[in-house]
Amino acid sequence: MSADLTESTPPTSNGLRNATLFAMILAAGLCRWIPHPINFTPIGAMALFGGACYAQRRFAFLLPLAALAVGDLATGFHILMPVVYASFAINVLLGRWLRSRRTFLTTAACTFVGAVQFFVVTNVATWWVYYPRSADGLAACFIAAIPCFQNTLAGDAMFTGLLFGALALTEYQLPAVREVSFTPVAA
Q1: Lowest-confidence range among 74-83, 106-115, 132-141, 144-153?
Q2: Coil, strand or helix: which one is 88?
Q3: CA 125/CA 84 separation, integer angstroms
Q4: pTM of the model
Q5: Using only C-alpha atoms, what is the Rg of the chain?
Q6: Rounded to an integer, what distance in angstroms lies between the CA atom of residue 94 and that of residue 99?
């Protein structure tokens, strides 16, 4: 009987959900501290997940950004960090778009678009800073980064699946984590 009561009792606030989402994002961010192939990280997935799952825009940007910064404490900071963080913010925006359209296909498409935009944005910045500013320099930069793109896409796909899958399982097992939508009551 207790299980029936839990399933039929709607959650009353998003506090538990927000804490759960942050714990999941933080856990993903800490995975960056584990040895991994270059660019096989949860960065894009954390941003997409945060954007798609947090109701409040400030949490969607701030909490995944905080988890990214915690990971950067271990991996180190570099001159292109502002570009990486800007690209991260673009993934949060993709997640915000995904929020009301989330299906397997749209999530996969946003994961792919996020990996592509990260590849393009960060490699244009890498070219500008480290390569000759010419068409040949740009081509050399992008060609050198192809293995990184493969790992970015694979990491984003794996961590996106893990984060969204873990959330679905958690919501199923613990209905209080489901999102509460507050609709105004007509007077």
Answers
A1: 74-83
A2: helix
A3: 9
A4: 0.84
A5: 19
A6: 9
